[in-house]
Amino acid sequence: MKNLRHLSLEDLEKLFKEWGEPKFRAKQVYEWMWKKFAGDISDMTNLSKPLREKLAEGYYIPKVKVHHSQFSSDGTIKNRLQLHDGHFIESVLIPTEKRMTVCVSSQVGCSLACKFCATGFLPRKRNVEFDEIVDEVVLANQQALEHYGKGLTNIVFMGMGEPLLNYKNVLKAIDMISSPDSLGMSPRRITVSTAGISKMIRQLGDDEVRFKLALSLHAANDRKRDEIMPINETSNLEDLVDALNYFYKKTKNEITFEYILFRDFNDSQKDADELVKLYRQVPVDLVNIIEYNPIEKADFIKPEEDVTDQFMHYLETKKVNARLRRSRGKDIDAACGQLANVDKANG
User: Fold this and answer.
1) Active site residues
2) CATH topology of domain 2-60
3) How is domain 65-332 classified at the CATH fold level?
4) pLDDT at 118
5) Domain locations in the chain?
6) What is d(CA 125, CA 54) in angstroms, rounded to the nearest whole number?
């Protein structure tokens, strides 16, 4: 049995031609998959029953299903999603007054082993297929409409896994999500976050992608970054600066730095000064200073409020466009760095 959604429109046209069916049947099937998001071939009611049965003999649609959802006191919704082969991933719907954002996962587990991230302690089982990523977005959009009466406005690839290590599926998913033949979302409302893989950042530039890029920085010198993010040993800060500048030169897309504050590790004025110097080497649109969210397997601690305030004030005096990002969904382990498939259903 083959995944029907892995056939392009051209593939479908070729298939139906071989079967002696008219060309427009391919368009009908394609619309069922990517406009109506049919869960089964039997749902394609404008195809004859014999044709549906013939199609179902060799193809199926492996839809992603919501295993369960958790609802935070702040309105955030975390979904535990089951893939067709029994693996689980998580996505998070984050509502605000102006935006409705979904945080999606791109891998089952992760191979990068960042020391502060719950997903980093999980083995990487496999990549998430492009159609499964689209399902994450579709399910979140349905949830947003059901609970908040408005659809998604933004998508961030900041869930489980490293998006640039699932490059083809992530780009194909974004192409589908932004296609007028599907969800039609603007790529400018999509942000892909990376732990920093220089080679693939340059590839994004060569491919002239249209979405935004975020770098999970978290330390502005190599010694500290090596300590918490092993990927830095193969893509150090000098190489990343070069890659980000290349990306911006080729695309002119927005770049964001993500910087989690850890008590007595990267929260001093010296750390802030190093961040300022790095900020000035790259055309960064925004620096997101993020509250640390505790996980069981890490010993990091969130700084005191006055330390965070001093850090933010120093950045402000140096004319850095920085914003303190308050965590959402902490009470359901849905905040930044907490996604780990913990089975705690409460709704």
Assistant:
1) 90, 336
2) DNA polymerase; domain 1 (1.10.150)
3) TIM Barrel (3.20.20)
4) 83
5) 2-60, 65-332
6) 33
Residue 338 pLDDT > 80, yes or no? no
Q: For residue 147, give Cα distances in angstroms to 57, 70, 94.
A: 38, 13, 12
Q: Which residue has the tokens 């890029």?
A: 213
Contacts of 179 (CB under 8 A, 6+ apart): 34
pLDDT tens for residues 157-205? 999 999 999 999 999 999 999 999 999 999 999 999 999 999 999 999 9
| CA proximity to 174, closest of 161, 189, 159, 152 | 189
Rounded Cα distance between 273 and 116, Å, is 22
- Alpha helices by DSSP H, listed for the chain, are 9-18, 24-34, 49-58, 130-148, 167-177, 198-206, 222-228, 237-251, 269-279, 305-317
Q: pLDDT, tens digit, for every residue of 226-278?
A: 999 999 999 999 999 999 999 999 999 999 999 999 999 999 999 999 999 99
pTM: 0.93
Handedness of CA 273, 277, 280, 284 (dihedral sign): negative
